[in-house]
# Entry
Amino acid sequence: MKLTAQEVEYVAHLARLEITPQEKEKFTAQLNDILLYIDKLNELDTKGVEPMSHAIGVTNAFREDNVVESIGTEKTLANAPDARGEFFRVPKVIE
Amino acid sequence: MELYQSTIHELQDKIKEGKTTATEITCSVLQRIDAVEEKVHSYIRVLKEEALAAATDADKEIKKGNIKPLSGIPVALKDIVCTKGLPTTCGSHILHNFVPPYDATVVEKLRAAGAIFIGKANMDEFAMGSSTETSYFGPTRNPWDLERIPGGSSGGSAAAVAADECIASIGSDTGGSIRQPAALCGIVGMKPTYGRVSRFGLIAFASSLDQIGPFTKDVEDCAIMMNVLAGYDPKESTSVNVEVPDYRQFVGKDIQGWKVGIPKEYFVEGIDPEVKAAIEAAIKTMEKCGAQSVEISLPHTQYCLAVYYIIAPAEASSNLARYDGVKYGFRAAGGDLLDMYRKTRMRGFGAEVKRRIMIGTYALSAGYYDAYYKKASQVRALIKRDFEDAFKKCDVILTPTTPTPAFKIGEKTDNPLQMYLSDIFTISTNLAGIPGISLPCGFTKSGLPIGVQFLAGHFQEGKLIQVASAYERKAQVEKRRPGL
# Structure
């Protein structure tokens, strides 16, 4: 076992996911299966191999810094579960 | 033959000759949807009113003599591409009420080319899956056998074309999500080179792998769609400014003297005997086309799936962090902000999405980055190098698209690793960023379609059209239709 149930709970916290006890049990088993499979990669010696981040070697993609129309506040807030005036509303953050 | 059964090029000829109209075609497809959609469930939303209005407008343009490449052609969009003013769910509860304020670049391009949007197609939630069973809106069924899956994640887009519920469609492919369902539904599907088609307005899954591409009824239609979709987009920094050829010019060209690489690693274990036989027959057909088959090696093939299942979930866990119940989509009630985030994501995401967020979060968490993401990115470089070496020895590569024909609904839902294995022949393409196409190469005895895949070097989509078109003409795979 690479991952304990406690670690699964910690990872869920990092991912901002509430998980049920049943999910915790299921994920612990399934994630361990997947991690065991992934372990295969350690058969390979990759010393000195440059990690690849993108398929095509495009580096900086520049464009002219021109001002164009943006979507605007009204449309941006139209999808918000809760908004007031020009702001998104969320539950209280600071006591 | 009904209008809805036609290809793009057949309908275009009819429109040009004044034998049909955009409205007639759209009505024909809508009637077909009325007749079979209940059985297949290709769509999350059918855009009936919008399509009829667009068809009326298209007919006015056609009357003026303004005929564009897709004038009057009903096209389905995977519900992962943003459509301005029309709900875009990504197959997820968390976006069930999201209405994008802008169009994806591909949507703008298709509309400018005259396409009629007929519906938003079903998909695995956030494109995570190989069967379209993880959709919040319920599974799509394979038109060839309603007990079976259509493949995924673009299963709705593929089933819609196979069931004649549209003329062509758009999908996205992160590890095989266009080619695998194309194979299992008996149609043509292309994943272009990474950067060939703009991803602007495509809801992100794994940003270094995602690419948009078409589903069509034949190879010529694939070329027509690629002519519309391909090209640099200043709004998308990973789109690449490389000249776009007229892909249609490659249709019908011969492949005399071409070398077709057969990777020995793709013929070792777990292939269904009927799939293997069909692929062996396809290799013989290539030889009849005047091509020569050569054995090649892609030595790191056995590591592709492991690399993918680090990179894709890692990128997904980061991309999906934006779904927090604040800016758009579903929000669950919660005590404080953290509680709201956690409950929103618990209730908004399905099991497979959560599983991948968990793997990705773990792989990127403190102390594990080098062991997982960095290691996977290094092996990814080796996989890309395999292909570079292989393309020194051959023009294109031929492989099976999938190890088996379509499996039964529910067969693999409880075993994520088994499900992941159905993408074993398509994933390497995304890791290397090269283009691939799947097209029909036969049927099993029980009548399920089988697909053959061709791969080429970066930006060599033209070669894929050429080889696929040559194969299509020579093989003359029986033109069967699903008995819906």
